[in-house]
Predict the structure.
Amino acid sequence: MWKINLSKQTDKFIKKKKIKDDEVLLLINKFINYSKGSDENISVKSMKGKWKGYHRVRIGKVRMILKVDFKEKTIFVDRMDYRGNVYK
């Protein structure tokens, strides 16, 4: 079982935009399946520079930046925001 942690900024964005928890969990589950090698319809990139070790998941105009620890089975969603704001 995976443990999912959200940053304060991510939690605030989800509440402000009234995004359902099920939608976020579905996206994270797709990411996990994609990481295991399943063919999922999801846009994922490994980050570079100061975000090294993080992954970016694209959902339309929204980006989710997360860090995965496969040994501990934890996912930390660091940021979730629109494309222009997420990398600041």
In short: Strands lie at 3-6, 43-46, 54-59, 62-69, 74-82. The CA atoms of residues 56 and 83 lie 11 Å apart.
